[in-house]
Amino acid sequence: MNDLELRGKNALVTGGGVGIGAAIAEALAARGARVAVTYRTHAPSDEAVGRLRSADGRPALTLRSDLTVEDEVQALGDRFAAELGGADIVVHNAGGLIERSRIAAMPHELFRRIQAVNVDSVFLVTRRMLPLMSTGGRIVTVASLAGRSGGHAGATAYATAKSALFGFTRGLANELAPEGITVNAVAPGFIESTPFHDTFTTAESKQQTVSGIPVGRAGVPGDVAAAVSWLASPGASFTTGTIMDVNGGQHFS
């Protein structure tokens, strides 16, 4: 096996139905991994599932689950174990803004929902999947540039959640290093062709944002997938506790 090949590895990608999650799942499958994807609101298309066949010809496992509900997370872990066995790679991609709201007008319930979708889900899935992982395991979380920059108006709660993932990543990396499991995160900047920006970003705002990206273009889901694929690979065994910026020079940590 070379440093990038994932043949024989079992991977879970949360929120893997569309956008960045779908690109990550496809990239892992292309390198030989057997992939399971979770979804709640965005089910993967038949065409997308067809692209996720592993090197040994096994079809992808699709798991509908609300990752903020402990019992549902327990059930998805049970099914993963029954269908695939041990887990080698866990990618936390599920999350979202839900809706824009300034803090002064935000109901507490909305603030808690945003934290649950972005942070509680990562905790619950991690806790469930860790018993299935062993030496050489990889955990990668998709955070956001908003966790560093604070995001735009109306996204403070989302930025708070994504920033929390940085601390979770570094703390968990310390906990799991003696077990030979690495834990890293990526922090994407503006990534087009995703439900997030299709829903919450206006055409004018997109144009303004892209004009300020030094490399001269918006990111695409494949840019994030490439970074995640490397962090999930055998070649990344000496990298843990890091936050990898994927933003075209939009922000330097």
Automatic annotation (TrEMBL):
CDD domains cross-referenced by the UniProt entry: SDR_c
Gene3D superfamilies given in the database record: NAD(P)-binding Rossmann-like Domain
SUPFAM superfamilies, A to Z: NAD(P)-binding Rossmann-fold domains
Keyword Repeat (UniProt): no
Pfam family, one: adh_short_C2
Keywords: Oxidoreductase
Keyword rRNA-binding recorded: no
PANTHER family associated with the record: OXIDOREDUCTASE, SHORT-CHAIN DEHYDROGENASE/REDUCTASE FAMILY (AFU_ORTHOLOGUE AFUA_5G02870), SHORT-CHAIN DEHYDROGENASE_REDUCTASE FAMILY PROTEIN
Similarity comment text for this entry: Belongs to the short-chain dehydrogenases/reductases (SDR) family.
Name this polypeptide is given: 3-oxoacyl-ACP reductase
